[in-house]
Amino acid sequence: MQFYEAVVLAFNSIKSHKLRSFLTLLGVIVGVITVVGVASFINSVNAYVGDTVINDFGANTVTLDKYGIINGFDEWIEASRRNKDITQDDYRALQEGVTLAQHSGIVISSQVDVLRHGNLELRDVAVNGETSSMADIMTNGTTVAHGRFITETDNEQRRNVVFIGSKVRDKFFPNTEPIGKELKIKGIPFEIIGVAKEIGSTFGQERDIYAVIPFETHLKMFGLHQSLTIYFKAINPGAQEALQDQIRTIMRSRRHLRFSEKDNFGFVSAEAIIEFWNSLTGLIAVVALAVTSISLVVGGIVIMNIMMVAVTERTREIGIRKSLGARRRDILWQFLIEAAMLSSSGGMIGLLLVWLGTLIASAFAFSVTVPIWAIVTSLTVSIGVGLIFGMYPAVRAANLDPITALRYE
In which band, very low, low, confident or very high, does the pLDDT at 69 lie, cut at 50, 70 and 90? Predict the structure, then answer.
Protein backbone atom coordinates (compact mmCIF):
# COMPACT_ATOMS: atom_id res chain seq x y z
CA MET A 1 0.00 0.00 0.00
CA GLN A 2 1.28 3.42 -0.92
CA PHE A 3 1.68 6.19 1.64
CA TYR A 4 -0.97 8.30 -0.08
CA GLU A 5 -3.53 5.48 0.25
CA ALA A 6 -2.75 5.14 3.96
CA VAL A 7 -3.31 8.87 4.45
CA VAL A 8 -6.67 8.71 2.62
CA LEU A 9 -7.80 5.73 4.71
CA ALA A 10 -6.75 7.48 7.93
CA PHE A 11 -8.54 10.69 6.92
CA ASN A 12 -11.75 8.82 6.06
CA SER A 13 -11.63 6.97 9.38
CA ILE A 14 -11.19 10.22 11.33
CA LYS A 15 -13.94 11.90 9.29
CA SER A 16 -16.40 9.07 9.92
CA HIS A 17 -16.05 9.50 13.72
CA LYS A 18 -16.00 13.31 14.03
CA LEU A 19 -17.08 13.63 17.67
CA ARG A 20 -14.84 10.83 18.88
CA SER A 21 -11.90 12.24 16.94
CA PHE A 22 -12.46 15.71 18.39
CA LEU A 23 -12.66 14.40 21.95
CA THR A 24 -9.47 12.45 21.28
CA LEU A 25 -7.75 15.64 20.14
CA LEU A 26 -8.66 17.60 23.28
CA GLY A 27 -5.73 16.26 25.29
CA VAL A 28 -3.22 17.22 22.60
CA ILE A 29 -4.91 20.60 22.00
CA VAL A 30 -4.76 21.47 25.72
CA GLY A 31 -1.18 20.23 25.90
CA VAL A 32 -0.01 22.35 22.95
CA ILE A 33 -1.91 25.42 24.22
CA THR A 34 -0.30 25.19 27.65
CA VAL A 35 3.23 24.42 26.45
CA VAL A 36 3.31 26.96 23.61
CA GLY A 37 1.32 29.48 25.65
CA VAL A 38 3.78 29.33 28.55
CA ALA A 39 6.77 29.54 26.20
CA SER A 40 5.25 32.49 24.31
CA PHE A 41 4.33 34.34 27.49
CA ILE A 42 7.75 33.95 29.10
CA ASN A 43 9.55 34.83 25.87
CA SER A 44 7.41 37.94 25.38
CA VAL A 45 7.69 39.02 29.02
CA ASN A 46 11.48 38.70 28.81
CA ALA A 47 11.54 40.88 25.70
CA TYR A 48 9.13 43.38 27.27
CA VAL A 49 11.11 43.60 30.51
CA GLY A 50 14.35 43.93 28.54
CA ASP A 51 13.00 46.85 26.51
CA THR A 52 11.55 48.49 29.64
CA VAL A 53 14.78 48.15 31.63
CA ILE A 54 16.89 49.50 28.75
CA ASN A 55 14.55 52.47 28.40
CA ASP A 56 14.48 53.11 32.15
CA PHE A 57 18.23 53.01 32.65
CA GLY A 58 19.21 54.31 29.28
CA ALA A 59 21.63 52.55 27.02
CA ASN A 60 25.20 52.10 28.11
CA THR A 61 24.71 53.05 31.78
CA VAL A 62 26.10 51.93 35.13
CA THR A 63 24.32 52.77 38.39
CA LEU A 64 25.98 52.99 41.80
CA ASP A 65 23.79 52.64 44.89
CA LYS A 66 23.87 51.24 48.38
CA TYR A 67 22.66 47.71 47.63
CA GLY A 68 22.99 46.77 43.98
CA ILE A 69 21.02 43.71 42.84
CA ILE A 70 19.83 41.65 45.82
CA ASN A 71 19.12 37.96 45.20
CA GLY A 72 17.53 37.00 48.51
CA PHE A 73 16.44 38.08 51.98
CA ASP A 74 19.64 36.90 53.67
CA GLU A 75 21.71 38.84 51.16
CA TRP A 76 19.59 41.94 51.80
CA ILE A 77 20.11 41.62 55.58
CA GLU A 78 23.85 41.28 55.10
CA ALA A 79 23.97 44.27 52.70
CA SER A 80 21.89 46.40 55.08
CA ARG A 81 24.36 45.69 57.87
CA ARG A 82 27.55 46.06 55.82
CA ASN A 83 26.86 48.63 53.11
CA LYS A 84 27.15 52.37 53.66
CA ASP A 85 25.10 55.19 52.19
CA ILE A 86 26.26 56.80 48.94
CA THR A 87 26.90 60.48 49.73
CA GLN A 88 27.45 63.76 47.92
CA ASP A 89 31.14 63.54 48.80
CA ASP A 90 31.27 60.20 47.00
CA TYR A 91 29.64 61.83 43.98
CA ARG A 92 32.13 64.69 43.90
CA ALA A 93 35.08 62.28 44.24
CA LEU A 94 33.73 60.16 41.41
CA GLN A 95 33.20 63.20 39.19
CA GLU A 96 36.85 64.07 39.63
CA GLY A 97 38.26 60.54 39.29
CA VAL A 98 36.10 58.79 36.70
CA THR A 99 37.37 59.27 33.15
CA LEU A 100 35.32 56.63 31.31
CA ALA A 101 31.93 58.33 31.73
CA GLN A 102 30.60 61.05 29.46
CA HIS A 103 27.79 61.95 31.89
CA SER A 104 27.02 61.40 35.57
CA GLY A 105 24.01 62.40 37.62
CA ILE A 106 22.17 61.94 40.92
CA VAL A 107 18.64 60.77 41.67
CA ILE A 108 16.96 60.83 45.06
CA SER A 109 13.31 59.98 45.54
CA SER A 110 10.62 60.75 48.11
CA GLN A 111 6.95 59.85 48.32
CA VAL A 112 4.63 62.83 48.76
CA ASP A 113 1.21 62.35 50.33
CA VAL A 114 -0.55 64.96 48.20
CA LEU A 115 0.17 66.93 45.04
CA ARG A 116 -2.26 69.86 44.63
CA HIS A 117 -3.49 72.28 42.02
CA GLY A 118 -6.43 74.35 43.16
CA ASN A 119 -9.04 71.95 44.54
CA LEU A 120 -7.61 68.96 42.68
CA GLU A 121 -5.11 66.57 44.26
CA LEU A 122 -3.07 63.44 43.56
CA ARG A 123 -2.01 61.15 46.39
CA ASP A 124 1.14 59.09 46.92
CA VAL A 125 3.18 60.67 44.15
CA ALA A 126 6.90 59.99 43.68
CA VAL A 127 8.87 63.24 43.72
CA ASN A 128 12.43 62.80 42.45
CA GLY A 129 15.30 65.20 43.01
CA GLU A 130 17.58 65.00 39.96
CA THR A 131 20.55 66.79 38.50
CA SER A 132 20.18 68.25 35.03
CA SER A 133 22.55 65.65 33.56
CA MET A 134 19.95 62.90 34.05
CA ALA A 135 18.34 64.05 30.80
CA ASP A 136 21.51 62.89 29.00
CA ILE A 137 21.56 59.53 30.79
CA MET A 138 17.99 58.25 31.11
CA THR A 139 15.29 58.01 28.46
CA ASN A 140 12.14 57.28 30.42
CA GLY A 141 11.07 60.05 32.76
CA THR A 142 13.30 62.77 31.31
CA THR A 143 12.27 62.97 27.64
CA VAL A 144 10.51 66.30 27.11
CA ALA A 145 7.10 66.41 25.41
CA HIS A 146 6.43 70.08 26.23
CA GLY A 147 8.57 72.75 27.86
CA ARG A 148 11.99 71.82 29.21
CA PHE A 149 13.78 69.65 31.78
CA ILE A 150 15.67 70.76 34.92
CA THR A 151 18.77 72.88 34.17
CA GLU A 152 22.00 73.28 36.12
CA THR A 153 20.96 76.86 36.99
CA ASP A 154 17.70 75.52 38.48
CA ASN A 155 19.76 73.15 40.59
CA GLU A 156 22.38 75.66 41.72
CA GLN A 157 19.80 78.29 42.68
CA ARG A 158 17.44 75.74 44.28
CA ARG A 159 14.53 77.00 42.24
CA ASN A 160 11.00 75.80 42.92
CA VAL A 161 10.42 74.40 39.45
CA VAL A 162 8.94 71.03 38.56
CA PHE A 163 8.93 68.69 35.56
CA ILE A 164 5.82 66.48 35.61
CA GLY A 165 4.72 63.14 34.20
CA SER A 166 2.01 63.02 31.54
CA LYS A 167 -0.67 61.64 33.88
CA VAL A 168 -0.08 64.48 36.32
CA ARG A 169 -0.71 66.87 33.42
CA ASP A 170 -3.87 64.95 32.45
CA LYS A 171 -5.17 65.12 36.01
CA PHE A 172 -4.59 68.81 36.69
CA PHE A 173 -4.52 70.39 33.21
CA PRO A 174 -6.57 68.20 30.82
CA ASN A 175 -7.54 71.03 28.46
CA THR A 176 -4.96 73.75 29.10
CA GLU A 177 -1.25 74.32 28.64
CA PRO A 178 0.45 73.55 31.99
CA ILE A 179 3.76 75.34 31.35
CA GLY A 180 4.07 78.27 33.76
CA LYS A 181 1.19 77.07 35.93
CA GLU A 182 1.51 76.40 39.66
CA LEU A 183 1.63 73.03 41.42
CA LYS A 184 1.93 72.61 45.19
CA ILE A 185 4.26 70.01 46.67
CA LYS A 186 3.96 69.70 50.46
CA GLY A 187 2.05 72.97 50.35
CA ILE A 188 4.93 74.81 48.61
CA PRO A 189 4.17 76.34 45.17
CA PHE A 190 6.26 75.14 42.22
CA GLU A 191 6.26 76.44 38.68
CA ILE A 192 5.71 73.78 36.01
CA ILE A 193 8.51 74.02 33.44
CA GLY A 194 7.93 70.87 31.41
CA VAL A 195 5.88 67.74 30.75
CA ALA A 196 7.48 64.36 30.09
CA LYS A 197 6.75 62.14 27.15
CA GLU A 198 4.33 59.37 28.11
CA ILE A 199 5.99 56.16 29.34
CA GLY A 200 2.91 53.97 29.75
CA SER A 201 2.14 51.29 32.29
CA THR A 202 4.08 48.14 33.13
CA PHE A 203 1.99 45.08 34.04
CA GLY A 204 -0.88 47.41 34.91
CA GLN A 205 1.29 49.69 37.09
CA GLU A 206 0.99 53.34 36.05
CA ARG A 207 4.41 54.94 35.49
CA ASP A 208 3.50 58.48 34.42
CA ILE A 209 2.44 59.83 37.83
CA TYR A 210 5.59 61.50 39.12
CA ALA A 211 7.29 64.87 39.48
CA VAL A 212 10.96 65.86 39.09
CA ILE A 213 12.45 68.83 40.94
CA PRO A 214 16.08 70.05 41.12
CA PHE A 215 18.28 67.87 43.32
CA GLU A 216 19.31 70.77 45.59
CA THR A 217 15.68 71.85 45.94
CA HIS A 218 14.81 68.32 47.00
CA LEU A 219 17.54 68.44 49.66
CA LYS A 220 16.19 71.79 50.91
CA MET A 221 12.67 70.38 51.24
CA PHE A 222 13.23 66.83 52.43
CA GLY A 223 16.79 66.79 53.78
CA LEU A 224 19.22 63.95 53.12
CA HIS A 225 18.01 60.92 55.05
CA GLN A 226 18.76 58.23 52.49
CA SER A 227 21.48 56.95 50.23
CA LEU A 228 21.93 58.56 46.83
CA THR A 229 21.75 56.76 43.51
CA ILE A 230 24.42 57.85 41.05
CA TYR A 231 24.09 57.19 37.32
CA PHE A 232 26.97 57.08 34.84
CA LYS A 233 26.83 56.89 31.06
CA ALA A 234 29.90 55.25 29.53
CA ILE A 235 31.87 57.00 26.82
CA ASN A 236 31.07 54.17 24.39
CA PRO A 237 29.07 50.91 24.38
CA GLY A 238 32.11 48.76 25.09
CA ALA A 239 33.29 50.72 28.12
CA GLN A 240 30.64 49.72 30.69
CA GLU A 241 32.68 47.00 32.37
CA ALA A 242 35.79 49.18 32.49
CA LEU A 243 33.71 52.08 33.81
CA GLN A 244 32.31 49.91 36.60
CA ASP A 245 35.82 48.74 37.53
CA GLN A 246 37.01 52.35 37.65
CA ILE A 247 34.12 53.35 39.93
CA ARG A 248 34.77 50.33 42.14
CA THR A 249 38.45 51.23 42.50
CA ILE A 250 37.67 54.78 43.56
CA MET A 251 34.93 53.74 46.01
CA ARG A 252 37.05 50.99 47.62
CA SER A 253 39.93 53.43 47.99
CA ARG A 254 37.67 56.06 49.60
CA ARG A 255 36.31 53.50 52.05
CA HIS A 256 39.72 51.93 52.79
CA LEU A 257 38.60 48.40 51.97
CA ARG A 258 41.21 45.66 52.06
CA PHE A 259 41.67 43.31 49.12
CA SER A 260 39.87 40.47 50.93
CA GLU A 261 36.88 42.59 51.96
CA LYS A 262 33.67 42.71 49.95
CA ASP A 263 32.35 45.90 48.39
CA ASN A 264 30.11 47.85 50.77
CA PHE A 265 28.21 49.38 47.85
CA GLY A 266 26.44 47.95 44.81
CA PHE A 267 26.07 48.29 41.07
CA VAL A 268 23.00 48.06 38.89
CA SER A 269 22.98 47.99 35.11
CA ALA A 270 20.35 47.20 32.51
CA GLU A 271 22.34 44.15 31.41
CA ALA A 272 22.63 42.83 34.99
CA ILE A 273 18.90 43.24 35.63
CA ILE A 274 18.01 41.52 32.36
CA GLU A 275 20.44 38.67 33.11
CA PHE A 276 18.96 38.25 36.60
CA TRP A 277 15.41 38.34 35.23
CA ASN A 278 16.19 35.82 32.48
CA SER A 279 17.78 33.41 34.97
CA LEU A 280 14.68 33.70 37.16
CA THR A 281 12.19 33.17 34.34
CA GLY A 282 14.40 30.43 32.90
CA LEU A 283 13.93 28.40 36.06
CA ILE A 284 10.21 29.15 36.05
CA ALA A 285 10.00 28.12 32.40
CA VAL A 286 11.67 24.76 33.02
CA VAL A 287 9.28 23.94 35.87
CA ALA A 288 6.21 25.27 34.04
CA LEU A 289 6.99 23.45 30.80
CA ALA A 290 7.68 20.22 32.68
CA VAL A 291 4.32 20.44 34.45
CA THR A 292 2.32 21.47 31.40
CA SER A 293 3.95 18.73 29.30
CA ILE A 294 2.03 16.21 31.40
CA SER A 295 -1.09 17.19 29.47
CA LEU A 296 0.62 16.05 26.25
CA VAL A 297 1.32 12.67 27.83
CA VAL A 298 -2.33 12.44 28.90
CA GLY A 299 -3.34 13.32 25.34
CA GLY A 300 -1.09 10.54 24.05
CA ILE A 301 -2.70 8.01 26.40
CA VAL A 302 -6.14 9.07 25.16
CA ILE A 303 -5.00 8.55 21.57
CA MET A 304 -3.68 5.09 22.43
CA ASN A 305 -6.97 4.11 24.06
CA ILE A 306 -9.04 5.37 21.13
CA MET A 307 -6.78 3.60 18.63
CA MET A 308 -7.19 0.37 20.62
CA VAL A 309 -10.96 0.81 20.29
CA ALA A 310 -10.54 1.47 16.55
CA VAL A 311 -8.50 -1.73 16.13
CA THR A 312 -11.20 -3.71 17.93
CA GLU A 313 -13.97 -2.16 15.83
CA ARG A 314 -12.11 -2.82 12.57
CA THR A 315 -10.84 -6.31 13.32
CA ARG A 316 -12.97 -7.86 10.57
CA GLU A 317 -11.82 -5.15 8.11
CA ILE A 318 -8.19 -5.98 8.96
CA GLY A 319 -8.89 -9.68 8.35
CA ILE A 320 -10.42 -8.95 4.95
CA ARG A 321 -7.50 -6.72 3.92
CA LYS A 322 -4.95 -9.33 5.00
CA SER A 323 -6.80 -12.08 3.12
CA LEU A 324 -6.67 -9.90 0.00
CA GLY A 325 -2.89 -9.53 0.24
CA ALA A 326 -2.28 -6.61 2.62
CA ARG A 327 1.07 -7.03 4.33
CA ARG A 328 1.79 -6.60 8.02
CA ARG A 329 3.59 -3.29 7.43
CA ASP A 330 0.60 -1.98 5.41
CA ILE A 331 -1.68 -2.45 8.44
CA LEU A 332 1.00 -1.05 10.75
CA TRP A 333 1.41 2.12 8.65
CA GLN A 334 -2.35 2.60 8.31
CA PHE A 335 -2.90 2.85 12.06
CA LEU A 336 0.34 4.74 12.78
CA ILE A 337 -0.54 7.39 10.19
CA GLU A 338 -4.05 7.68 11.63
CA ALA A 339 -2.64 8.25 15.14
CA ALA A 340 -0.11 10.79 13.83
CA MET A 341 -2.81 12.65 11.89
CA LEU A 342 -4.97 12.83 15.00
CA SER A 343 -2.19 14.22 17.18
CA SER A 344 -0.82 16.63 14.55
CA SER A 345 -4.32 17.97 13.92
CA GLY A 346 -4.59 18.62 17.65
CA GLY A 347 -1.23 20.37 17.55
CA MET A 348 -2.29 22.67 14.71
CA ILE A 349 -5.61 23.50 16.37
CA GLY A 350 -3.74 24.24 19.60
CA LEU A 351 -1.34 26.57 17.75
CA LEU A 352 -4.25 28.37 16.10
CA LEU A 353 -5.88 28.97 19.50
CA VAL A 354 -2.58 30.20 20.95
CA TRP A 355 -2.21 32.61 18.03
CA LEU A 356 -5.72 33.98 18.65
CA GLY A 357 -4.81 34.33 22.32
CA THR A 358 -1.70 36.35 21.45
CA LEU A 359 -3.82 38.75 19.37
CA ILE A 360 -6.16 39.31 22.33
CA ALA A 361 -3.28 39.72 24.78
CA SER A 362 -1.50 42.16 22.48
CA ALA A 363 -4.67 44.25 22.17
CA PHE A 364 -5.27 44.56 25.92
CA ALA A 365 -1.86 44.11 27.58
CA PHE A 366 1.58 43.96 25.96
CA SER A 367 2.79 42.46 22.71
CA VAL A 368 2.91 38.64 22.84
CA THR A 369 4.54 36.66 20.07
CA VAL A 370 4.91 32.93 19.51
CA PRO A 371 8.59 31.99 19.06
CA ILE A 372 9.41 29.89 15.99
CA TRP A 373 11.14 27.24 18.10
CA ALA A 374 7.92 26.76 20.09
CA ILE A 375 5.90 26.22 16.89
CA VAL A 376 8.39 23.69 15.48
CA THR A 377 8.77 21.92 18.83
CA SER A 378 5.03 21.68 19.47
CA LEU A 379 4.29 20.22 16.03
CA THR A 380 7.20 17.77 16.29
CA VAL A 381 6.19 16.69 19.78
CA SER A 382 2.49 16.35 18.89
CA ILE A 383 3.32 14.13 15.87
CA GLY A 384 5.80 12.20 18.03
CA VAL A 385 3.12 11.66 20.68
CA GLY A 386 0.81 10.18 18.05
CA LEU A 387 3.51 7.87 16.70
CA ILE A 388 4.72 6.72 20.13
CA PHE A 389 1.32 6.14 21.69
CA GLY A 390 -0.13 4.81 18.44
CA MET A 391 2.62 2.21 18.07
CA TYR A 392 1.12 -0.44 20.37
CA PRO A 393 -2.38 -0.38 18.76
CA ALA A 394 -0.78 -0.40 15.30
CA VAL A 395 1.45 -3.39 16.14
CA ARG A 396 -1.52 -5.21 17.64
CA ALA A 397 -3.55 -4.61 14.47
CA ALA A 398 -0.65 -5.72 12.25
CA ASN A 399 -0.21 -8.96 14.25
CA LEU A 400 -3.86 -10.04 14.03
CA ASP A 401 -4.32 -13.48 12.52
CA PRO A 402 -6.43 -13.00 9.35
CA ILE A 403 -8.53 -16.15 9.95
CA THR A 404 -9.31 -15.11 13.53
CA ALA A 405 -10.02 -11.58 12.39
CA LEU A 406 -12.49 -12.78 9.71
CA ARG A 407 -14.43 -14.74 12.35
CA TYR A 408 -14.71 -11.63 14.62
CA GLU A 409 -18.24 -10.29 15.02
Answer: confident
